[in-house]
Amino acid sequence: ESAATRTLYGIDQPESAEFGRRCLIARRLIEKGVRFVQIYCGAGARWDAHVDLEANHGPLVKRFDKPMAGLIADLKQRGLLDSTLITWGGEFGRTPTGISGTGRDHNPYGFTTVLAGGGVKGGITYGATDDLGLRAVTDPVHVHDLHATILHLLGFDHTKLAYVHAGRLERLTGNSGNVVQGLLA
Questions:
Q1: I need a surface site. Which of 11, 69, 75, 114 has the fewest CB within 10 A?
Q2: 8 A C-beta contact, residue 50 and residue 27
């Protein structure tokens, strides 16, 4: 890869080099037609920190930010972003405060997920939490709706992805879920 590409992915910086290489490999896999690629940032790190968030998450963000921005920019420049769905998020949102005083606890009522490319409307923020960041109050999206939307963007009708379990018809979206039309390009 050129020096400019290595810089774009943060491979030339010690804090982002490892994840930058992973993002670059992901781009190469996408170019070769691999349909599903997962990249994980921060193996052995404390993304699930409940204390000292600044000390725990600050270095992780330095690992993640530049490579991920580089991957998105590179996919766009190569004409691959329109056909590549990027998703990232965590297991939960975070409460505005935590029991420890220096951290935040799990919050299933307000969380952030990023979607880019692959049929997603670009440059928008969809939904919002209350002023404290505790609960989704504007355009809340249930996790089943998020999954239905991702499946739709991948070309699947989530209502037809069903199987019989214990005599009941089950779906990947928990027998509910609606595609969030406001997220679609």
A1: 114
A2: no
Pairing of strands 136-138, 106-107: unpaired
Residue 51 confidence (pLDDT): 82
pTM: 0.89
Question: Quick one: three-class SS letters along 69-118?
Answer: HHHHHHHHHCCCHHHCEEEEECCCEECCCCCCCCCCCEECCCCCEEEEEC
CB 185 within 8 A of CB 122: yes
Stretch (H or E) spanning 165:
strand 162-165
Q: How far is CA 17 from CA 40, 47, 63, 78, in A?
A: 14, 18, 8, 22
Identify the pLDDT of residue 66. Answer: 97
Structure confidence at residue 117 (pLDDT): 97
